[in-house]
Design goal:
The chain is 37% helix and 21% strand. With 579 residues, it is of the alpha/beta class. The mean pLDDT is 96. Strand 9 and strand 10 form a beta hairpin. Helix 9 runs parallel beside helix 11 and helix 11 packs antiparallel against helix 18. The protein is built from 19 helices and 22 strands. The chain has three domains: 166 residues, Formyl transferase, N-terminal domain (Rossmann fold), CATH 3.40.50; 92 residues, Formyl transferase, C-terminal domain (Methionyl-tRNA Fmet Formyltransferase, Chain A, domain 2), CATH 3.10.25.10; 244 residues, 2-enoyl-CoA Hydratase, Chain A, domain 1. The two termini are 32 Å apart. The structure holds coenzyme A (COA). Coenzyme A binds next to helix 10 and strand 18.
């Protein structure tokens, strides 16, 4: 089928759907929803059988939906309408939510229904639900809708009008307005921790909850309940730890990991202790070993091998907000990797975070620093140090277990391990060029050819997302496993333990050490890094400002003014637009 995506951006859900539909043999071209005339032009050029809107913030023009079947993915249950579907579901503590695929018509979200799916609504941020449950449900719904489309064309199937839907679903949604900041407002004197968490989750990653931290007006994000009992007055900031500030509530306390100041122009979402660095200088540091907001965690499991000896597996979790890894976080992760290396384990599993494995260096903190070039340099060196420590771990087998998506340097961080396992639903963006033609480091010039040979460079040039399965087929990763993040984590433990019990484990580790020594003798790791960093130095400090311009727009979420040609296939052979 020839399919045209009309979408606000090439976000994670759209990337996943694009990959999955192409893998099923469909020709998919993309146009960003900029203005109606550009959408009309894209339809004229591509002549699609079907138009899909995986992520749209505006209505499709009548000139398009009146002539073509346009299917819209709405992140709500059947009957739900309005722009804040997930926000209301999370705030109101729905136990089940869903996705509906409906046909665009004159009334927003009120068209005939082509497919729907429901799922249990997990206690998590809106962004996390969107990247996991909504994406899965949307994909399943769209695949069903595509099957229905064939029958529809033959006249043997019709979509379900909204008025008839109540006979087919257990719970009907309703038209809900845009959620306003007034609906999200936290009353620290009254609200319980659970309600505050729901309010913050319903607004995360966008728009955040308007509030105040230490007298400074801010939008708040990234909430975690602190389980330990805390003294203080509700609303008071009682402690800080690394990135987060701890606020007392009526019945406990809650960490706020990220904040965006609203007292100044042009601010970014930053770790709370950075956004309010001066204001929180005198706040007491958290005195306990662990906190509800900890980003890095290490644990072990023990199994008995066939000779009756105990063998241990280490698991290093690093759950950084949005997968972005700052200089501080890289240094702490390096420390944690070094500590894990000292443990008497035979297998070390790098678990990354639940929603993201890693997205590389922290572009927001770089953008907000006094010198973006200097901070970029510090950050890339810090992440390179982590990569080096993993590559040089030659006395254990190291596994990267990807539960969530990975992009740019974060994808190469995964390749530093001996084996890379991934959840089936993971999307990888193993390239850097979309960030202003960044050359990239993280030892990719060593790691990519090691797995894929010289052919590997094409994934760098293509600058396109790939599914875990495609990555497996091209030899970039080693294993793909089904299941949600929790099931995958359990399967990882079982398989890592099975690996630790294998009689040939010591031989594998010895081989690996030999291979590393041989690679080092042929070309030292340091020279790969030096050559990569020479290019990165030019990107950061040279005359061409592309990286700085791209980062400026990425961190400020500047709206697209055109669709890149590598996505807009319909424009590749199309005549130039009239001025
Ligand atoms: N630094 C800081 N923030 C980052 C980030 C990074 N490296 N990568 C992603 N984010 C943030 C986004 O700004 C967004 O923030 P929000 O919470 O305010 O919405 C959030 O993470 C999710 O990113 P988004 O782009 O919406 O996710 P996606 O899943 O649709 O797309 C990527 C994934 C990887 C394609 C995209 O995030 C990306 O290009 N990231 C930059 C990767 C990069 O160039 N890293 C630097 C070179 S190593």
């Amino acid at each position: 089928m020839r399919i045209l995506f009309i979408t606000h951006s090439f976000n994670s859900l759209t990337q996943r759907m694009w990959c999955e539909l192409r893998a099923r043999g469909h020709d998919v071209s993309i146009e960003f929803d900029i203005i109606d005339s550009v959408t009309e032009e894209a339809v004229e050029f591509w002549k699609p059988d079907l138009i899909l809107a995986p992520y749209l913030r505006r209505a499709i023009p009548e000139s398009v939906w009146s002539k073509h079947v346009c299917l819209v993915v709405h992140p709500g249950i059947v009957g739900d309408r309005g722009p804040s579907a997930l926000d209301w579901a999370i705030l109101e503590g729905e136990s089940e939510w869903g996705v509906t695929v409906l046909q665009a018509n004159a009334e927003m979200d009120a068209g005939d229904i082509w497919a729907w799916r429901t799922f249990p609504l997990r206690q998590a941020s809106k962004a996390s639900i969107y990247r996991n449950e909504v994406t899965e449900a949307a994909l399943a719904g769209v695949l069903e809708a595509l099957e229905n489309f064939e029958a529809y064309k033959q006249g043997s199937w019709k979509p379900l009008p909204l008025e008839q839907a109540p006979q087919h679903v257990t719970k009907m949604g309703q038209l809900r307005p845009l959620m306003k900041q007034e609906d999200r407002r936290i009353d620290w004197q009254k609200d319980s921790s659970a309600l505050i968490l729901r309010k913050l989750n319903a607004a995360d990653g966008f728009p955040g909850v308007r509030g105040e931290l230490l007298g400074v007006p801010c939008n708040l994000y990234d909430a975690h309940i602190e389980p330990l009992p805390i003294e203080g007055a509700p609303g008071q900031v009682v402690a800080k730890r690394e990135h987060a500030l701890l606020l007392k509530t009526t019945d406990g306390a809650i960490w706020v990991g990220h904040a965006k100041r609203t007292d100044k122009e042009d601010t970014l979402k930053l770790p709370s202790t950075v956004a309010l660095a001066a204001e929180c200088a005198d706040i007491a540091n958290w005195q306990h070993d662990a906190a509800g907001c900890d980003e890095i965690r290490y644990e072990e499991s023990t199994v008995t091998n066939e000779e009756g000896a105990l063998v241990k597996v280490g698991y290093l979790h690093f759950d950084f907000y949005n997968g972005a890894m700052s200089t501080r976080q890289c240094k702490q992760l390096l420390h944690a990797v070094e500590a894990a290396r000292q443990q008497p384990t035979q297998v070390l599993v790098l678990m990354g975070g639940r929603d993201f494995w890693s997205n590389g260096i922290h572009l927001n903190l770089i953008e907000a620093s006094g010198s973006a070039a200097d901070e970029s340099w510090e950050n890339i060196n810090a992440i390179d140090d982590v990569c080096k420590a993993i590559i040089e771990t030659t006395d254990k087998l190291v596994i990267s277990a990807m539960r969530g998506n990975a992009g740019a340097g974060g994808a190469y961080l995964a390749l530093t391990a001996d084996e890379v396992w991934s959840r089936e639903v993971v999307i990888l963006n193993p390239h850097y060029k979309n960030m202003g033609n960044l050359y990239g480091s993280e030892y990719w010039t060593y790691l990519l050819p090691r797995r894929m040979g010289p052919d590997g460079r094409r994934i760098m040039q293509n600058r396109l997302p790939i599914t875990a399965r495609e990555a497996l087929d091209m030899g970039l990763i080693d294993k793909v496993m089904a299941g949600d993040a929790q099931t995958f984590a359990q399967a990882v433990v079982a398989q890592a333990e099975a690996l630790a019990k294998q009689p040939d484990l010591q031989a594998r580790i010895a081989n690996k050490a030999e291979q590393r020594a041989a690679d080092e003798a042929k070309k030292p790791l340091a020279s790969y890094r030096e050559a990569e960093l020479a290019n990165m130095r030019r990107n950061f400090f040279g005359f061409d400002p592309s990286y700085h311009v791209a980062r400026f727009h990425f961190t400020r979420k500047t709206l697209h003014s055109w669709t890149p040609r590598h996505l807009a296939l319909h424009r590749q052979d199309a005549p130039e637009r009239a001025a």
